[in-house]
Design a protein that fits this description.
By secondary structure, the chain is α+β, with helices and mostly antiparallel strands. It has one domain (6-171): 2-Layer Sandwich (Alpha-D-Glucose-1,6-Bisphosphate, Chain A, domain 4), CATH 3.30.530.20. Helix content is 26%, strand content 41%. It has helices at residues 28-33, 49-57, 59-65, 150-171, and strands at residues 6-12, 21-25, 38-45, 72-79, 86-93, 99-110, 114-119, 124-131, 136-143. It has a nine-stranded mixed β-sheet with strand order 2-1-3-9-8-7-6-5-4. The termini are far apart.
Length: 172
């Protein structure tokens, strides 16, 4: 188990997790300079940049792929894709035992390239879309929260990204 503040990176190149995990503890100076920890997750998707962007930003599609595990689902999604616009994804355990709204406000949008937003709790997220010549690389960089262990957050965000990859490739 790690202690202190960490930088964690995970890479997934297919729908099965076969990425790598690296972590290091920040120095006291880095910890002071970096108010929040950042985690980067990414995946390579066998689809066009336009298709990846569309399926990532369309509420009806978000409801299909936005889950970290089989026992959760997104019951509703809304997305006002413009700077200052809001999105809200209602995530719930399928047994009804727990649910929450994952929501935020867009700070920056570069069509087919980048989304930046601030979550309801003030954390920042950046999502980068890059065509690689044979598909699209999707990278998410997010600030951690202090309610759950860093490793749990990293695996949850990666699992959702892996579900997105599978959903997109199943549409082909």
């Amino acid at each position: 188990m790690f202690s202190g503040v960490h930088i964690i990176e995970v890479a997934s190149t297919n729908s099965e997790f076969n990425g790598c995990l690296t972590a290091r503890t920040l120095t006291p100076k880095e910890k002071k300079d970096n108010k929040m920890e950042k985690i980067t997750v990414h995946t390579n998707i066998n689809a066009s940049l336009e298709e990846v962007w569309r399926l990532f930003t369309t509420p009806a599609d978000v409801e299909q792929w936005n889950t970290a595990s089989e026992d959760w689902h997104t019951t509703t999604a809304s997305n006002e894709l413009q700077v200052g616009g809001k999105f809200n994804y209602r995530m719930e355990a399928k047994d009804g035992s727990f649910g929450f709204d994952f929501w935020g406000t867009y700070d920056r949008i570069i069509d087919f390239k980048q989304l930046e937003y601030t979550l309801g709790d003030g954390r920042k997220v950046s999502i980068i879309f890059k065509f690689t010549g044979i598909g699209t690389k999707l990278t998410e960089i997010f600030e951690t929260e202090d309610e759950n262990p860093v490793e749990m957050q990293q695996f949850g965000w990666q699992a959702i990204l892996d579900n997105f990859k599978k959903y997109v490739e199943d549409q082909q």
